[in-house]
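Protein in question quoted for reference:
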Amino acid sequence: MNPIYLFLIPLLASGLSWVAGKNGLVQKVLTCLVFAGSLGLLFTLQESGFANSTFSYPWIHSFGIYLALSVTPLNFWFLVLTAIVVFASQMYHSSLDEKNVRGDVMSFIFLLQFFLYGVFMAQDLMLFYFCYEASIIPIYFISSRYGSPAAERATLKFFLYTLAGSLLMLLGILFMYNSAGAHDFLFSSFSSDSFSDSVQGYLFLAFFIAFAIKMPLFPFHSWQADVYAESPVESTMLMSGILLKMGIFGMMAIVIPFFPQGLKDYGYIFIGLSAIGVIYGALIAMVQYDIRKVLAYSSLSHVGLIGTGLLAYSDVALEGVVLQMFAHGINIAGLFFISDIITRQTGTRDLDQMGGLTRSSFALSVLFFVFLLGSIAVPLTNGFPGEFKLLMGIFDYNIYLGLVCGSTVILSSVYMLRVFQKAMLGKETGNYLESLQGLGGFRTIGLSLLVFLVLLFGLFPGIISNISDSAVRTLLNAY
């Protein structure tokens, strides 16, 4: 099965979605078809052992740039997560009142899916860079146009941060091309042997900073809280659930295999910064009263743990990175989904102005609690296997670093249970309970899918590991 079909499906859907406009039924049908088609193609390729999963065509031949795509064990779960988070965000948007369904938003989400597929499947550095950079465009328009009054400024800050990091990456790509004496930008034209130890150090710094801004890792995170809080929930679900995973993937696909000496020389600095982010994000989340900012800083803490595991560089830690990457995407998308429902019902994002929602919406409480359990890594939920393996790998690297990162088990429980207690339990602080509305059919479908995945991958994490293990071994061999 040719991966070009997977790549082009969301691009075609973006055009059709734009034409469909405010027709909510057509948008829902299109969303379901793209979701089913994407997963069908991906699992067909996986069942075939990824046979015939590569496509290559000269794109800008004079510069040696190829439209080179491949589905591999390394990118498989990133692609699956993209399809799931896009589906959930679109189900949320298309479940709004008919007059509020916007064809441009649905179209931009499909366009973002197209660019994300390009990032994860790219086998050409310039194609990777193009899709990586272009992915900010749909998010910028959705957030700045339909977010809060403060969203435009916050999104512009995100755009400028990302642009600065991407320019470093572009310079790094051009330096790789010249230093290796390559005639094209295909991944296969480069290896760690192409660069001296000192050059690997400079390239590591350039690429790592670009990816750290996108994830984001401490101290490159200052854009995150405002963008997550002020953007529409569809945009926030996409940014937190999948967009930041481009940085994780870039580390695994480019930095680790091509610059292992740079990782040895400078990795310990950024391991320390990532570990600081684990504590910093958790402590700031504990004192926030805006429900969406609590989730934003919780994401910073969880991604800091992933970043520490990435750079600790062991088989157990890298297995944990893949598991936790997937779990975090599911959990944080679900939590932002729930938070926006709560915000719309109560008319506020202030936790002190909420309370008592369980008495009128028990189903919402159950769904919220499942995502909460996954987020704090309770056994039998999807957050536990990845966090357990990450901490094992970090403890093997450095016991003191492991103790610092291990505090996330306690701290995440504190701030997440605080959110649940203030929003769902206690007494009503307003007059909103009598006017509460049901979840609605399509919102329920989107949330139920995410809840099912929280439990499925908590009970059977081997579903992910069985596919990703070969990619992890390949990365370790490159070190």
In short: The chain has a mean pLDDT of 83.
